[in-house]
Amino acid sequence: MKLLGRPPRGGNERGSLAVELVVLTPVVIMFALLALALGRLEIAHEQVVGAARAGAEASSVVPSAADAQSAALAAAMPVVANQVRSCTDVNVASETEDFVPGGSVRVVVSCQINFDDLLVPGLPGHIRIQAVVVAPIDPYRSVQ
After folding, report:
1. Which of 50, 56, 73, 83 could disulfide-pair with 133, CB 3.0 to 4.6 Å?
2. How many of the other CB atoms lie within 10 Å of CB of 136?
């Protein structure tokens, strides 16, 4: 007597696990590589924002506009240093057109994120991100 609803016992499903493994392994690997790329992007974004903030704060307390660029560079570079894959080709620019008491200084930090080593289809080899932070200059101090 045959029972309805039960698959017959036998070798009908032999090897199905191997087929599922062959089909799903590339999909799982692509999701893992995509997660790695998004993590790299987020870490680099946090570093660029932190570097821009440090550079703006440092350049807003120097005595002259001429010293603002070197102060911004000196404060921003340690934040993004030693990041081989997440942040390369760092550029720090300090804009001091409004460097007067009560004015502000604007620092722009940008860097390049490399995705070359991930080999995810549709993902560019690299992208450039930037952060802009404006810091006020104390209105009661003197500037040169």
Report:
1. 56
2. 12
